[in-house]
User: Which sequence fits this backbone?
């Protein structure tokens, strides 16, 4: 029998509840689509096998890796980053202050070009079926982890292709002069120049710490790729099993350094279809369902055992143009398309008004936000005029890629694409909507095979640079993470200047100028800043969803 991802439900119990579930279906059939109703009925009849008590989180996509250094996809970060790993420091989401994690303290020296971290001495790495550590975390692990990013002599630098998208997109891999062990529990980072964003970047979900002892064992066994496939971290949960398109299974880390972990088994149920995720929440197969559609909220709100949470989140959903492809290499064409898009209609039909209309690439909650009045407003006649000026009076045909998963910044890319398709038809542009499976979508996007794409970004720190660099810098073009394929030396110079500036007001002015440039050049059109929606059983407490970065289930509790 197929192994099921659920942790508490047994076949007999499910069968005994079937009449109630059918009654629930009949009760709600007037409020949900026929597809959703059929999905709910199917969810009632799955056979399951009894497993260990725990928590099931319905996630929207397979993880693309088990090392956050290798990806920037939000669905993967939610699954792995805070569950398996820790960082040297973190950021208090309320105050914005840095908080000690694996490092107990740090100091900036030599005008900020040198940063010294003092490490915690009681942190155990995971013990699993495939690795038993003989020591706690020390400076060797931190040196190994971060030299992997930039040192070609690190034996793991080229493992997996040598791509570290977040660090490369912000140029951090080029900022390190050295990372050295200056004590058994002390590490010194030397930078080529001061970087005002350095500590913030070290607190992101990507700046986790790996085990050098595990890496050395894999080297002896000539199985280096396993470091990113069979993870070893210091986080609250340890890896057990991954079955593609089915589940990821973790067990609690009995030796977690930070606190006791209440959940014995944590399972991420891979359920890409939003209807199916909500059906599983309604039938009790999922304790938490990620990114429910706004269309489902009415049904969920009628349930006393399910709470719908709306959480503020630093993000932006946008339409990116491949600026290296004709006709999108002409700003007049990009501006014409932007004038033909009715953002207000999109907010109503896609977000159900659970979002703010974007007036900048940065969200309003960012300390460097400045609304840009020169973003194109909805004006079909002006759009037609601009197309004629650009030499496309009769329009053209274009592909519009729609991501296949629901995200905070875009809960329904297919629906958004259909709305844009209808609008652009009115100005003579024929739109072909293209969809791929999520991992294939990401791979092809990295190769810049698209004309245009509906995508977005959720921040990993409150730094403005966390938006501007990863998706718009020249470095992010080379790393394949800049979907607009836009490289502007003047824009990059602004980002570099912001890095080198400590004064917060001076940095704001620089970021204001960067936002103005994006609005003027239009490599992408910001559409909305979405709320993070989450359907959660009322029996679950302690789930931490910060306004930036991935979800943490370290302190989750489940009432029996």
Assistant:
């Amino acid at each position: 029998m197929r192994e099921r991802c659920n942790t508490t439900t047994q076949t007999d119990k499910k069968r005994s509840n079937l009449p109630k579930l059918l009654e629930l279906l009949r009760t709600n059939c007037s409020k949900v689509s026929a597809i959703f109703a059929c999905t709910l009925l199917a969810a009632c009849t799955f056979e399951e096998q009894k497993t260990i008590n725990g928590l099931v989180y319905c996630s929207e996509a397979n993880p693309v890796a088990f090392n956050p250094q290798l990806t920037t996809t939000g669905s993967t970060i939610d699954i792995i980053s805070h569950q398996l790993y820790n960082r040297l420091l973190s950021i208090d989401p309320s105050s914005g202050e840095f908080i000690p994690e694996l490092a107990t303290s740090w100091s900036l020296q030599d005008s900020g070009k040198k940063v010294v971290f003092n490490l915690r001495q009681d942190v155990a790495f995971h013990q699993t079926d495939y690795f038993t550590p003989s020591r706690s975390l020390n400076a060797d692990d931190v040196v190994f982890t971060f030299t992997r990013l930039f040192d070609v002599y690190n034996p793991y630098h080229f493992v997996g292709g040598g791509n570290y998208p977040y660090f490369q997109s912000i140029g951090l891999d080029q900022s390190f002069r050295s990372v050295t062990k200056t004590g058994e529990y002390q590490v010194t980072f030397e930078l080529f120049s001061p970087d005002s964003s350095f500590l913030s970047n070290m607190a992101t979900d990507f700046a986790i710490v790996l085990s050098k002892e595990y890496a050395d064992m894999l080297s002896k066994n000539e199985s280096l790729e396993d470091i990113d496939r069979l993870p070893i971290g210091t986080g609250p949960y340890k890896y057990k099993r991954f079955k593609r398109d089915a589940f990821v299974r973790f067990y609690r880390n009995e030796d977690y350094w930070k606190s006791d972990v209440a959940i014995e088994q944590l399972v991420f149920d891979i359920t890409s279809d939003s209807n199916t995720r909500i059906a599983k929440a309604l039938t009790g197969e999922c304790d938490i369902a990620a990114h429910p559609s706004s269309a489902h909220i009415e049904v969920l709100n009628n349930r006393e055992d399910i709470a719908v949470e709306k959480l503020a989140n630093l993000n932006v959903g946008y339409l990116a143009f491949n600026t290296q492809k004709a006709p999108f290499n002409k700003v007049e064409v990009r501006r014409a398309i932007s004038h033909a898009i009715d953002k207000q209609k999109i907010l109503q039909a896609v977000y159900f008004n659970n979002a703010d209309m974007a007036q900048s690439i940065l969200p309003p909650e960012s300390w460097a936000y400045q609304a840009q009045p020169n973003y194109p407003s909805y004006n079909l006649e002006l759009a037609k005029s601009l197309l004629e000026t650009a030499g496309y009076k009769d329009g053209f045909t274009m592909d519009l890629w729609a991501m296949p998963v629901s995200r905070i910044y875009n809960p329904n890319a297919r629906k958004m694409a259909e709305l844009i398709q209808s609008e652009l038809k009115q100005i003579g542009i024929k739109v072909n909507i293209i969809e791929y499976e999520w991992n294939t979508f990401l791979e092809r996007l990295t190769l810049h095979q698209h004309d245009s794409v509906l995508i977005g970004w959720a921040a990993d720190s409150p730094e403005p640079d966390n938006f501007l660099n990863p998706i718009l810098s020249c470095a992010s073009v080379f790393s394949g993470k800049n979907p607009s394929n836009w490289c502007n030396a003047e824009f990059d110079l602004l980002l570099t200047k912001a890095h080198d500036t400590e004064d917060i007001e001076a940095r704001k002015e620089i970021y204001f100028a960067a936002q103005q440039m994006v609005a003027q050049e239009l490599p992408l059109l910001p559409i909305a800043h979405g709320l993070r929606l989450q359907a959660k059983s009322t029996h679950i407490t302690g789930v931490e969803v910060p306004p930036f970065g991935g979800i943490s289930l370290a302190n989750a509790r489940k009432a029996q």
Notes: Residues 105 and 460 are 21 Å apart (CA to CA). The chain is about 30% helix and 20% strand.
